[in-house]
Each structure stands twice: as C-alpha cells, then as structure tokens.
C-alpha cells in the first residue's frame, strides 16, 4: 500500500464587510504567498503541492521522507508589509501506548507490550519497571493522563543477585534495553517483553523510552501479578 501520509500547513485570512449607508462593500487583502523549507524556497513538485483556494493557501507534503523533516515557513506579503509563520516538521516518536492487559495471566511473570507511532524508525526501546512502593499504590486511569519526563535512574549499592545478573531492590527502577522491530512498514512500531520473577499479589509500574534521535518517554503503566 502506498504511503499517503501528508503534512498540511495552512495560512488563513478572512475578509470583512464595511457598510456605508445602504450599500455593502467587500474589503479584501490581496497578498502573495511563498513557501520555504529552512531558507530554500519551495517549488511545486510531485510531492510538494501548493493549493490556493480563495484566501486559503495550503502546502501539502506527500509521502513524507526523513529528508522532509525541518522548519517550514509561509511568507505572505503585499505592498503594505510582510508576515511569516514557521512550523517544525519532526519525526520524533509519539508517546508509547501500552497494549497488554493490566493483570498477568502467568504464575510469576508478566508479558508487557506497547506500540509507538513514529514516521522515523525507532532504534531501540528502554523499558523501566519496578514494584510500586508500599503506600504508593495508584490507578492506571489517573496516572496515564500525566506523562512523566525522563528521569535518571540511580541505583544504590543495596540489592541482590540472581544468577549472573545484579538486581536492585524491588522498589527501585530496573531497566532493560530492547532493539526495535517495526510492526509495519509505515508508521506503527512496537515491542513486548516478558518480565520474570515477580512477587505475588503485588502492584508494579512500568514506563518505556522510544529512541530514534531524541527520546520520547511514555506515561506510567500499572500491572499486577496475582498468585493463583
């Protein structure tokens, strides 16, 4: 299927009516519009389409590629002056959305999964998870509406060992780096990971980073392991 995603930038101007006695006159502001990417003026091509419908001027970018990302400007001018508006077109990943059910179906582990929409290929995911500290139990519906900024994770010297892997205390954040595998050729990418050795009847929380050039951090997601 051909990629038909388009980016639309619009400059809209309105006309006003002036009433003098019993006559109505239309007052129009005539101007010329020029489009730029960074400092380069854009011409109409197969992928760059410039539409002019009355006072509405629109730039359509078809089949968006990595080289299309950048700053776009619309310059409108006439003998009375000039005005410019700028918009940044970015391939930064959107916030990841967790897809797994909040209650585990396994005995001592939880399969967590998520997707992220991104025009640029995501290079890797970094999953953070921990047991919710006692007395801090929270609700998914509340926390999901409050995305967190990236927080540095600092582990103290306390902890315990499992095989060859050193693990921090259960209430501190643990993390794992996972390579990204696109779910589709165009837009949606995702990942899943099996978290093992969970404590029974406990509430856990997780967040995930999606990295391509910059980092996008998800909201907190809560899940539970209930002992059967």
From TrEMBL:
InterPro entries: Cell_Adh-Cytoskel_Orgn (IPR050958), Ig-like_dom (IPR007110), Ig-like_dom_sf (IPR036179), Ig-like_fold (IPR013783), Ig_I-set (IPR013098)
Keyword set includes Metal-binding: no
One GO BP annotation of this record: homophilic cell adhesion via plasma membrane adhesion molecules
Domain of life: Eukaryota
GO molecular function: axon guidance receptor activity
Alphabetical UniProt keywords: Immunoglobulin domain
GO cellular component: axon; neuronal cell body; plasma membrane
A Pfam family reported for this protein in Swiss-Prot or TrEMBL: I-set
Protein name: Uncharacterized protein
Species whose genome carries this gene: Phlebotomus papatasi (Sandfly)
Lineage, highest ranks first: Eukaryota, Metazoa, Ecdysozoa, Arthropoda, Hexapoda
């Amino acid at each position: 299927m051909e990629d038909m995603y388009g980016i639309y930038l619009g400059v809209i101007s309105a006309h006003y009516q002036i009433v003098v006695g019993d006559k109505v006159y239309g007052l129009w502001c005539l101007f010329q519009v020029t489009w730029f990417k960074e400092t380069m003026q854009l011409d109409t091509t197969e992928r760059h389409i410039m539409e002019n419908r009355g006072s509405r001027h629109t730039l359509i970018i078809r089949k968006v590629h990595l080289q299309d990302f950048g700053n776009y400007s619309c310059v409108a001018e006439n003998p009375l002056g000039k005005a410019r508006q700028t918009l940044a077109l970015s391939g930064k990943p959107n916030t990841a959305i967790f897809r797994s059910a909040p209650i585990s179906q396994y005995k001592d582990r939880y399969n967590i999964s998520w997707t992220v929409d991104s025009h640029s290929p995501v290079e890797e995911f970094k999953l953070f998870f921990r047991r919710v500290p006692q007395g801090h139990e929270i609700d998914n519906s509340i926390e999901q509406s409050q995305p967190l900024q990236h927080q540095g994770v600092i582990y103290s010297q306390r902890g315990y060992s499992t095989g060859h892997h050193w693990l921090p205390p259960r209430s501190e954040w643990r993390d794992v780096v996972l390579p990204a595998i696109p779910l589709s050729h165009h837009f949606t990418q995702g990942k899943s990971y099996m978290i093992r050795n969970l404590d029974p009847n406990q509430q856990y929380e997780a967040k995930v980073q999606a990295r391509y050039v910059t980092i996008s951090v998800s909201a907190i997601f809560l899940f539970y392991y209930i002992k059967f």
